[in-house]
Protein 1
Amino acid sequence: MGAIEIYFGTITLIIMLIALARGYHKELGSTMIIMVAIFLLRLVEEQFNPALTRLGAAFFPVSETPNEQQLFLSSVYLLFFVVAVFAGYAGQTITFAGKPLPPPRGTILTLVVGFINGYLIAGTVWYYQDAYGYPLSQFGLLKPEFSPVAQALIQVLPQNLMPSSSLWMIPIAVLLLIRVRG
């Protein structure tokens, strides 16, 4: 059991360390995959909730209680997101061309891109917990009471800053243009 902002910070820090090992030219490819996953989730989320609830009731022991439905829905979206993030980091990834910048500029750029990726990943996980009433708290994984810092961070989660799925196309398009122009 722990404060959610500790989880948020830890995930972000781990992603930043991974970025240092990979370099910003590979991390930008992962950024694009993460943003596409967020775009797809935002695009289909409201339309698929009723169908997913019915699917959960038909194939899994999901009862009609709101807590179990919320847990099922958040789990489905988080599973999709985690698989997409894993695919974006594993194996052959989209790599941005060009000669990497030498330290310290290259290191700073890598840390910034790693921070953005960590923010997007941790923020999306937190967003789906928040959107569905923190269903993992019933397992003792999160404290149900939030500090003022956590309450402030909720306002700046990625999906709260850019609630429309169409807004997510802008940074995706910019990254695609950078990648194509090489």
Note: The CA atoms of residues 35 and 60 lie 30 Å apart.
Protein 2
Amino acid sequence: MQHDSERPVPPRLAAAVDVARAAAVEAADGEADQVGEALTVHAEDGGDAVGDAPVTAATHYLAAAKPGYRGWTWAVTVMTADEDPEAPVTVGEVALLPGAGAVVAPEWVPWNERVRAEDLAPGDLLPVDSDDDRLVPAHAALDDDVDPVDEAEDPEQVRGVADELGFGRPRVMSPEGRFDAAARWSDGDFGPTAEMARAASAHCGTCGFYLSLAGSLRGAFGVCGNGNVPADGHVVHAEYGCGGHSELQIDTGSVVTVAELVYDDGVDMDAPAEPVAVGADPDGS
């Protein structure tokens, strides 16, 4: 049923507050103190009524004093037969409905979407669904993993050698899975828009510590091999950068100003000095 706010509630239905309260108390396992004061009543549209058909149902709203249900209301729908004005008022349904300030449970999220990477602890297992769209059978994606320099090789031959050596995997990442990973890495702490990257004078793509990934992501991503920076061991974007770039040159000269030495070649430091008599002036006068 739906509210029909434009139609008045018949007096018999509007006066059935006690009937609605009794039904709510029964739904509260007989705990009368869990049903509060009457709040309002609304006419209900039965769905098949047309024109001026009489209203035969209304919903009474009563405050809920049930522990743990702050902001909720009891909604009790009462009804009667339109043909007989003496027909009793009966209860159609009883429900607890959340109001504007009600405390409700969060929207349910499947566990495989709820678990985050930081939730995984040593010893935990995180299985993957058989229909995970990030993965495809390895034989279906082998063509994408062939390097451009090796395009002349027969993929079937490559596949056969890989399987023979035990390198084959049942499934590998699909294009969708790789795109999702690339977007996540780009938006992460080691992407081109990170604060560290914006302040860097050079990017990872030109750094000697940058170890490019293989496969289709090698043009944009690699692993940092500089053990002196926070990005060490992490996948970094080629446009990421930090202060540990291999080609960074810093002037390590002394910060103290040293005066330039001046040599006077007109003075013979090896010539013996003339003796001066005691009591005589140094200038010989």
Note: The chain has a mean pLDDT of 79.
Protein 3
Amino acid sequence: MIQAEDLTKDYGLNRAVDRVSFRIEKGDIVGLLGPNGSGKTTIMRMLTGFFAPTAGRCSIAGVDVTRDSLSARRLLGYLPERVALYPDMTVRRYLAFVAKVHEVPGRVDSYVDEAMHQCGLVPMADRHIGKLSRGYRQRVGIAQAIIHHPPVLILDEPTVGLDPRQVVEIRALIRSLAGRTTVLMSTHILPEVSITCRRVLILDRGRLIAEDTAEGLEAKAVGRGQLTVRLTAPAREAAEAIERVPGVSAVEIDGAEVGGVVRLLVTTDGAADRPEAVARAVAERGWALRELAPHTISLEDLFVKILEQAEAEQR
């Protein structure tokens, strides 16, 4: 449904997007993840026909966005970073106006009512947009993007400005579209990707540096073969003893806690019986084992690690 081939965008001497290629299948929900300035918004503006690429091509449902922009746009619902809303119009009137622009078949009111219900806007239907909170204005932006039942939805930071409850509701709305609508959403919030998206595209400095499923990204946050061990023992002695366990390649003292508890990061070859062997080594020396678990890092730390690896490969 969405395809980019060597998509490139230059602003003078500055390359904002550098030969990015990806394909998103029908009904999939994909997150475009990257720090501010990584090229997320520029890619979305090229996909929606607002910017022409310097090189490369992109298509929506097989329609070339550059060659036939109008036809491609008819297949899209788009929530830009800053959606243009009319503050003097009520929510109902504005959505009716958008529905007419899209020339929806059938009764306009039914499309308006459905979009308001999906986005939790029914209580605000007759309120002027200019008097709404930022969170509700964001909801209006999402409603205008989905009102005409587009097969492809492109959302630029859809939960910005929402309170925690609204964030949960909008994420649920996006997930509910899976299967019948193809969704590409940008964000710089890692947990949002793992909760909402099936697949992740990671950008840095205009380059696509990684691509994975959300489950794969979370799995990488669990270091393969790495264990967190907490025990009551002399730190150096414990590290040396565990390092002698077959299959253990390294032990790092990760910190000390109150009461003589030491935390170790143990790297093994990943064999299934290594945790049991480590526990046995601790028990044989009479030390109290407080914790033995797979070592995990936060998704934020994983993201930084991926960026650092990409930078190292460029050198």
Note: Residues 222-296 form a domain with the Alpha-Beta Plaits fold (CATH 3.30.70.1340).
